[in-house]
Specification:
By secondary structure, the chain is of the alpha/beta class. It has a single domain, classed as Rossmann fold, CATH 3.40.50. The chain is built from 7 helices and 7 strands; from the N terminus they run αααβαββαβαβαββ. It has a 7-stranded mixed sheet with strand order 3-2-1-4-5-7-6, sandwiched between helices. β1, α4 and β2 form a beta-alpha-beta unit. It binds S-adenosylmethionine. S-adenosylmethionine binds next to α4 and β2.
Length: 206
């Protein structure tokens, strides 16, 4: 099949990206691993025994890290639109997080126990039109925050990918209402031209 200009550009970027090469060498499923590892180094969000939910988890590098750090006494539930290869210690759900039926399946999988940490690296398919992309991205952040509010235990944490632009200030202040401390992180492995950053919220108070 003929490659489009944008897929050629993506392939070129992948081939020259040091984090892609490092991920291949170190056995991570994607370069996104280094974003979570840097957040972990600064904010110590993952600890042994934790119950973790990973939204937008495929292909699974955040799950690899989370499963390793929570260890055998912890648990990780992963959800994505796309299929994901199995990982030891990770329960995988495939579906659209925006769908009420998916939310029901997720709640059934999580059971009655509250979560210690919600991770969301979800990002919608980008059209290139910010009037379309930004509200779609913000909607996913709002849903992740709603879920965190309903499933986290007091003191729990949320790490969520956000795109700077319309709605950013509102989501930041909404998070500040529910968490004792919210900081923004732009990991070195997050491309400088991307408006993505991560909000790390700790100390949930219902
Ligand atoms: C940047 S990737 C996540 C990479 C992942 N953190 C890792 O370490 O491999 C973003 C993911 O969000 C997922 N996603 C986007 N919208 C979604 C939705 N509505 N429901 C579930 N997953 C979604 C995409 O399918 C994609 O796999």
């Amino acid at each position: 099949m003929a490659k489009t200009a944008s897929s050629r550009k993506w392939l070129d970027r992948q081939h020259s990206d040091p984090y892609v090469k490092q991920a291949q060498r170190e056995g991570y499923r994607s370069r996104a691993a280094y974003k979570l590892l840097e957040i972990q180094e600064k904010d110590r969000i993952l600890r042994p025994g934790m119950r973790v939910l990973d939204l937008g988890a495929a292909p699974g590098s955040w799950c690899q890290i989370a499963a390793r750090l929570v260890g055998p006494n912890g648990s990780v539930v992963a959800l994505d639109l796309l299929p994901m290869d199995p990982l030891p210690g990770v329960s995988i759900l495939q579906g659209d997080f925006r769908e009420p039926a998916m939310l029901e399946r997720l709640c059934a999988t999580l059971g009655g126990e509250p979560l210690d940490l919600v991770l969301s690296d979800m990002a919608p398919n980008i059209t290139g039109m910010s009037v379309v992309d930004q509200p779609r991205a913000m909607y996913l952040v709002e849903l992740a925050l709603d879920l965190a509010r309903s499933r986290l235990q007091p003191g729990g944490s949320l790490v969520v990918k956000v795109f700077q632009g319309t709605g950013f200030d509102e989501i930041l202040s909404a998070m500040r209402q529910s968490f004792a401390r919210v900081v923004s992180r732009k990991p070195k492995s997050s491309r400088s031209q991307s408006r993505e950053l991560y909000l790390v919220a700790k100390g949930f108070h219902p």
